[in-house]
């Protein structure tokens, strides 16, 4: 019991230590600059008057699913007693909705300035995912603390890259490390699901969809050539990530249903006594 209590109380401390250790190691590695041709999007077709139109329009499904999810969060707010969980889900879906907008702005006018706006939304969404994943194994309070720590570190890593982006020492490694930590932590929480009643299969699905989307971003031009100019890797990435948002929406709804079932079972047990 003591070891379980210790793990529950110190989850945010463990996350902080891992981030600091990783940062210390990266500090002594050679810097990793963002590819110099990152903003040279292969699909530059103008659609409906929008430059890089396909990359812009593939953000629409992302926005629609996020909007539906925010409505569901509003319903959960009135029905749930766990306001911390509702807050984390709200932050996640609000950030994904924001990402669809900031991503569109970036693709209309690709630059480091518009890119950092896009990545700020991504950082908040990623940090909220860590909080959501930690709700069941570590509790709501730990989830909020972990989210706060992740937001601070993610924003720092992002602004560090932006500050160095115009110098020979440009380094995006800290931001990459942040994303890896988010995925590893969320995956760890999914592995722990067997110890708890709540299923984390949809969180695992969200992680898998996000991981699957990354090669399309990296091999943007190559995918555009493979499809004979039909769709670029970046556009395909947008469409795949929609499934991550949808998976988290299903997870929220199932979690709320499980919680309501447990409350009703306890109520029935109390009445039978």
Highlighted features:
globular, 273 residues, disordered N terminus, mainly alpha, disordered C terminus, Rhopdopsin 7-helix transmembrane proteins
Task: Characterise this structure.
The chain is mostly helical and 273 residues long. It has eleven helices and no strands. Helix 2 (11-27) runs antiparallel to helix 8, helix 4 (60-79) packs antiparallel against helix 5 and helix 9 (201-218) runs antiparallel to helix 11. Residues 1-9 and 259-271 have low confidence and may be disordered.
Uncertain runs are: 1-9, 259-271
What's the CATH H-level superfamily name? Rhodopsin 7-helix transmembrane proteins
What's the Cα radius of gyration?
A: 20 Å
* Number of H- or I-type helical stretches: 11
* Element string (H = helix, E = strand): HHHHHHHHHHH
- For the record, the CATH class is Mainly Alpha
Largest sheet: none
Overall SS class: mainly alpha
- Number of domains as seen in the coordinates: 1
Oligomer category: single chain
Q: In whole angstroms, how far apart are the ends?
A: 28 Å
Sheet-strand content, in percent, reads under 5%
What form results from the Cα inertia axes? globular
**Average pLDDT over all residues:** 86
The total beta strand count reads 0
CATH topology: Rhopdopsin 7-helix transmembrane proteins
**What level of helicity do the residues show?**
over 70%
Q: If classified by CATH, what would the architecture be?
A: Up-down Bundle
């Amino acid at each position: 019991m003591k070891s379980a209590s210790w793990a529950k109380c110190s989850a945010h401390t463990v996350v902080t230590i891992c981030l600091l250790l990783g940062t210390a190691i990266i500090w002594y590695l050679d810097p990793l600059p963002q590819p110099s041709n990152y903003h040279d999007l292969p699909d530059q077709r103008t659609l409906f008057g929008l430059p890089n139109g396909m990359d812009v329009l593939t953000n629409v499904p992302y926005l629609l699913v996020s909007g539906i999810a925010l409505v569901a969060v509003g319903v959960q707010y009135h029905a749930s007693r766990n306001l911390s969980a509702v807050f984390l889900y709200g932050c996640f879906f609000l950030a994904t909705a924001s990402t669809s907008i900031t991503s569109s702005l970036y693709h209309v006018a690709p630059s480091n300035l518009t890119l950092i706006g896009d990545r700020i939304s991504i950082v908040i969404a990623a940090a909220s995912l860590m909080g959501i994943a930690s709700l069941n194994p570590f509790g709501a309070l730990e989830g909020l603390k972990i989210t706060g720590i992740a937001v601070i570190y993610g924003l720092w890593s992002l602004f560090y890259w932006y500050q160095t982006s115009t110098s020979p020492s440009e380094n995006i490694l800290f931001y990459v490390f942040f994303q890896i930590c988010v995925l590893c932590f969320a995956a760890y929480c999914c592995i722990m699901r067997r110890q708890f009643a709540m299923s984390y299969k949809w969180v695992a699905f969200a992680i898998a969809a996000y991981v699957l989307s990354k090669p399309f971003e990296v091999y943007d031009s190559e995918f555009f050539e493979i499809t004979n100019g039909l769709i670029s890797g970046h556009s395909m990435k947008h469409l795949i990530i929609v499934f991550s948002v949808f998976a988290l929406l299903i997870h929220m709804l199932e979690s709320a249903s499980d919680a309501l079932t447990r409350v009703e079972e306890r109520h029935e047990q109390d009445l039978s006594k």
